């Protein structure tokens, strides 16, 4: 069973426009995402923050809508979307926040390979 798509647009106190996306994004509803993103982009001169942290599934149709707008958006996502956002190249085209696992930020990477206890 799919989770219905929910799109809520708001303004942060600093003036940034945020499009919060909840549910699953696929071919059946990606046009709704595109329309909401375009409307939100028209609300202000800055970039749009697309919050995908509550999205559990994103297919290629939804990904295409994000890629099309990559020069005008920033993305907040959870680790579950990390592989698709990275493999698609989206992380190279726009800022993507929230993919770092807790305790594993850039400065926290181990310098030695992991060795399991004997």
From TrEMBL:
A matching Pfam family: STAS_2
InterPro entries in the record: MlaB-like_STAS, STAS_dom, STAS_dom_sf
SUPFAM superfamilies assigned to the protein according to its UniProt record, in alphabetical order: SpoIIaa-like
Every STAS domain range: 14-96
Gene3D superfamilies, alphabetized: STAS domain (3.30.750.24)
Region feature (Disordered): 98-118
Protein name as catalogued: Anti-anti-sigma factor
């Amino acid at each position: 069973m799919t989770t219905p798509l929910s799109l809520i647009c708001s303004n942060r106190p600093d003036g940034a426009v945020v499009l919060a996306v909840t549910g699953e994004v696929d071919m059946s509803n990606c046009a709704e995402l595109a329309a909401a993103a375009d409307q939100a982009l028209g609300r202000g001169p800055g970039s749009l923050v697309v919050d995908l942290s509550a999205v559990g599934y994103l297919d290629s149709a939804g990904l295409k809508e994000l890629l099309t707008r990559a020069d005008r958006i920033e993305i907040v996502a959870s680790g579950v979307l990390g592989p698709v956002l990275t493999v698609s190249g989206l992380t190279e085209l726009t800022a993507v926040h929230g993919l770092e696992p807790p305790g594993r930020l850039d400065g926290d990477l181990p310098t030695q390979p992991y060795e399991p206890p004997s």
